[in-house]
Amino acid sequence: MNLLPFYLSISAFMFIMGVIGVLTRRNAIIVFMSIELMLNSANLTFVTFSSYLGNITGQLFVFFVMAVAAAEAAVGLAIIIAIFRNKSTMNVDQINILKW
To answer: Can you give the CATH number for the domain in which 56 is found?
Structure first.
């Protein structure tokens, strides 16, 4: 049984939900989680095509994406905590530290 369209539609749904979360939410943590959701949908697509084509290359890309996501989580959360300590807000609209 060919499950390729099923997994690709789940991946597309996850990616769309991530994009909607980035575009509509103003909380920095929610935006951060939406970006992680988009990375996970890309991972699902890589694994799906890797399994469908019988090639391990897509699964190797998943390991690289997971490593980048882990580094992004560590650095991103540290930046968010530092901004929260200085500005006392998590709202992206109210954080304007790069403006003159």
So the answer is: 1.10.287.3510
Note the pTM of the prediction, 2 decimals. 0.84
**Enclosing domain of residue 16:** 4-94
Q: Tell me how crowded residue 8 is: count the other CB atoms within 10 A of its CB.
A: 16
Write down the pLDDT at residue 84.
Answer: 85
Length of the chain: 100
**Helices vs. strands in the chain: H and E counts, helices first:** 3, 0
**What residues form DSSP beta bridges with 91?**
27
| Cβ pair 64, 42 in contact under 8 A | no
What lies within 8 Å, CB to CB, of 60 at 6+ separation is: none
Alpha-carbon distance of 56 to 79, in angstroms, equals: 35
